[in-house]
Specification:
Elements: H1 20-33, H2 37-42, H3 56-85, H4 101-112
Helix pairs in contact: 3-4
Length: 116
């Protein structure tokens, strides 16, 4: 896949269990460049909208909320994919069952950085 002229494609570094601090700084920069870091750092709320009257205006609000949640879920899937592709096959099983980018990031952070 070719990048646009004048732009550099950022490649994800592969984390193999060593030099977590360097890897995490590089990944944070890559995630920021894709507009995904805030989602990885803070996660998102998947709580259901409050039940209300099924008015036409309420339906429009629900549609907007549903559309916004779909966008958030897609962005989170992109972020999770970047994180998954940036770990070695030996590290991947640690985040295998995580369904959010924040969950995967937090596991790696706890495992390899700890409470430092």
């Amino acid at each position: 896949m070719a990048s646009e002229p004048g732009t550099a494609e950022l490649r994800t570094p592969v984390f193999n269990g060593e030099n977590y601090e360097f890897w995490s700084i590089r990944m944070k920069t890559i995630l920021k460049s894709h507009g995904l870091w805030d989602l990885v750092e803070n996660g998102f709320d998947v709580s259901d909208p409050k039940p209300g009257k099924e008015e036409e205006e309420g339906s429009k609000v629900a549609e907007v909320e549903k559309s916004t949640m779909a966008e958030i879920l897609m962005k989170d899937a992109r972020a999770l994919g970047l994180i998954q592709s940036a770990v070695s096959d030996q590290i991947f099983p640690k985040i295998l069952n995580e369904e959010t980018s924040k969950g995967a990031w937090d596991i790696l952070k706890q495992e390899f950085r700890g409470d430092k």
